[in-house]
Amino acid sequence: QVQLVESGGGLVQPGGSLRLSCAASGFTFNKYAMSWYRQAPGKERELVASITSAGGSTNYADSVKGRFTISRDNAKNTVYLQMNNLKPEDTAVYSCNARWAFLEYWGQGTQVPVSS
């Protein structure tokens, strides 16, 4: 059974930091590119960051460059999103995504409210 389970979300003040984790099971993790997406209330889902299967290449949305870092540990079947200097506009539900060829899986998401 394929599972992607996010954790690490929660209320944070502007300027604060959080690290999200996404634990994968039920598929060959090291074959899949992994991404983090987010969806803010009333807005479309957007790609935040992605990382290739071996972790050699990353990509970020312009809005998070220099503040967020995506990484993965293939030995632990886990992908991370380190979020620093959080802003109110980062408030969203963050979901992880796994993609390989025509196969794609999603986690259930974790909420990240950024507010004072």
Q: How many helices does DSSP assign?
A: 0
The biggest sheet, with number of strands, parallel, antiparallel or mixed sense and barrel status, is: 6 strands, antiparallel
Mean pLDDT: 97
Instruction: Find the structural class using helix and strand composition.
Output: mainly beta
Total E-strand runs:
10
> Which geometry do the CA atoms define?
globular
- Helical fraction: under 10%
Could you provide a short overview of the structure?
With 116 residues, the protein is mainly beta. It has no helices and ten strands. The protein has strands at residues 3-7, 18-25, 33-39, 46-51, 58-60, 68-73, 78-83, 92-100, 103-106, 110-112.
Present the secondary structure layout.
Blueprint: E1 3-7, E2 18-25, E3 33-39, E4 46-51, E5 58-60, E6 68-73, E7 78-83, E8 92-100, E9 103-106, E10 110-112
Antiparallel strand pairs: 1-2, 2-7, 3-4, 3-8, 4-5, 6-7, 8-9, 8-10
Description:
With 116 residues, the chain is mainly β. It is 0% helix and 49% strand. It has no helices and ten strands. A hairpin with a 2-residue loop joins strand 8 and strand 9. The radius of gyration is 13 Å and the shape is globular. It starts with a strand and ends with a strand.
